[in-house]
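#struct-help
A.M.: can someone run this one for me? Single chain, 375 residues.
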Amino acid sequence: MKQYRVISADSHAIEPPDLWQQYLPQAYTDRGPRVISESHEDIWVCEGMPSHVAKRPMGAVAKNRSKAYAAAAEGNKRYATDTNDWHPDARVEYMRQDGVDAEVLYPNYAMRAFGIPNKDLQQAVCQAYNNWLSDFCSTNPQELFGIAVVAAFDVDWALQECRRAKEQGLVGVLLPQDTPDGTRYSATHWDPLWATLAELNMPLSLHIIASGHANTNWTQDETGEESAAVGYAVLPVRMARAFGTFILEGVFDRHPGLQLVSAENELSWAANFLHRLDWGYHRRKMAKDPMVKCERLPSEYWHEHCSMTFIDDLPGVMLREFIGVDRIMWSSDFPHLDSSWPESQRFLDRHLANVPKDEARPIVAENCVRLYGLG
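D.P.: on it. Structure tokens below:
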């Protein structure tokens, strides 16, 4: 069994520009995501979706942080500048340069799949991505662990795709933060999906910006905030709403084996969120709020069912006693511009300087191993 010292619990796969042309059924290849080269830049296009500049995967291409920022400022961008960016052996080498033993891989462009309006196309796009990701991870099965992207239009289809993803070796499932039918995830018609995920021991992830609101300004989509800068700062509100729904509205009482992950949304907000959940629980229970259905203190469910990833959140690490050391997982966010790559060891040294070793080890590896059953 491989011994893991450092695991990134939230990194991102880099999709080849022709992924969906290679993996989609022929009937969908002209409708699914693809990169089109124009005179000054490359563009991601997909039926029913706004076009999106196909930016170079900064971390992998630029090789260091200063060059990554410089590349981000370039006006002209080409996506397929280095095929090593989606070669699994090269990916493992990038990890080694950063002192990282394994990565849990979320999608990159494929997070936009939740915005595809056509049900059948969205399902086909998700399924094709999962097939590619399974192939990608299978080349280095002790280093690369994939999170399946699952469309949520149809609960029966979704749970079958979860079963298929498990058989393919993927370790978790990503759903959109918002439901396509406008219901809450606590609604009982979602229960078969939660039961399936609990049965399969596949954690459910909600990732920042992964929602059905596909637009050129993702941040505004998530928060309704006109200013992208302000919207970025208040993104945790959306995640808090989702976690509050699962906790307060009885989902974990009905499905005690379900695990929920907040991905790339940092930590600090959770300490006050838990305090307010418990304080409000007493007030709402006394007021007989019909939507408060959980049978125990909300923070008890959090410490049994909820995990978080963070990249750069020193205040959050300082609040670990309130959040729960066994609920926190570090991530590099490779290859995005927010990534700590290739300086992750410096980031970890700064965050863990005053953290006892028996608490640091779970944060950088052991919690991730336990949650996903790695090794």
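A.M.: thanks! Residues 214-219 have pLDDT under 50 and may be disordered.
D.P.: also worth noting: The chain has 17 helices and eleven strands.
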